[in-house]
Write a structure and sequence with these properties.
The protein is an alpha+beta fold. It has two domains: about 1-70, no CATH class; about 110-240, Roll (Chitinase A, domain 3), CATH 3.10.50. The protein contains seven helices and seven strands. It has helices at about 1-15, 25-40, 50-60, 75-105, 155, 170-175, 235-240; strands at about 110, 120-125, 135-145, 150, 160-165, 185-190, 210-220. Strands 1, 2, 3, 4, 5, 6 and 7 form a seven-stranded antiparallel sheet that branches. It is elongated and about 70 Å long.
Length: about 240
């Protein structure tokens, strides 16, 4: 499948871009493919000049011309470039996040905890706060610091249930400060979210995240079997 996507990407590079918005389901599926491929290549943060060499290599293969270099000889180099550029992008995210987190912590009603979590209550709930073994049901929307939304149970129209102790630390701590019926904003430094690895392609490494969470229900672990959360992923998943 990956090879097919690369072939299609090569083809698309040499076809004039369509200026019309996709309308049919097939058109939308192919549009989604283009977005997906672009995100896969975004790790290299290609400059216009570098993109020209990518295009040249694809053109040579597509036209039957002998490649100037053999791909296998440069797989290690590509791996090194990817690693270097991921590290650079991660540091950039952390730099951007630093000033954002400082401003968020200074907002009215914000509480900054020892872990770096910035908690702001939007609506007070009632009852007991959940503990790490409880099953919680929540609605949430997650965004990056630039406002880009990467996930929302609200838009899906389906809240998620999960054990509070099995999600990213920011959620375990933040939701643990809430009461049923309450709503809060959780601003999460990368250290208590997805760390330097991020969760590609949705969440860059080193990214600070903002979640608006509504705690709908709290149930003891023995009361219900939890459904797998759509996001954030469990700790084990996030560390991959």
């Amino acid at each position: 499948m990956r090879k097919l996507l690369l072939i299609l990407f090569a083809f698309l590079l040499f076809v004039p871009a369509c200026s019309q918005e996709p309308k049919t389901e097939d058109q939308k599926a192919f549009y989604a493919m283009g977005v997906s491929i672009s995100k896969q290549l975004s790790v290299f943060d290609l400059s216009p000049e570098e993109l020209k060499y990518v295009q040249q290599g694809m053109t040579d293969v597509a036209t039957g011309k002998k490649p100037v270099v053999e791909p296998d000889a440069y797989m290690q180099k590509l791996g090194e470039l990817a690693k270097t550029r991921i590290a650079k992008a991660t540091e950039k995210q952390k730099t951007l996040a630093k000033s954002f987190l400082e401003k968020a912590a200074a907002e009215k009603g914000a509480q900054k905890t020892t872990t770096g979590l910035i908690y702001t209550e939007i609506k007070a709930g009632t009852g007991a706060q959940p503990n790490s073994t409880d099953i919680v049901k929540v609605h949430y929307t997650g965004t990056l610091i630039d406002g880009q939304e990467f996930d929302s149970s609200v838009k899906r129209g389906q809240p998620v249930d999960f054990p509070l102790g099995q999600v990213i630390p920011c959620w375990s701590e933040g939701i643990g400060m809430m009461k049923p019926g309450g709503k809060a904003k959780l601003v999460c430094p990368s250290e208590i979210a997805y760390g330097d690895n991020g969760y590609p392609p949705m969440i860059p490494g080193g990214a600070a995240l903002i979640f608006e969470v509504e705690l709908l229900e709290v149930k003891p672990a023995a009361a219900a079997a939890p459904a797998a959360p759509a996001a954030p992923k469990t700790k084990a998943k996030a560390k991959k």
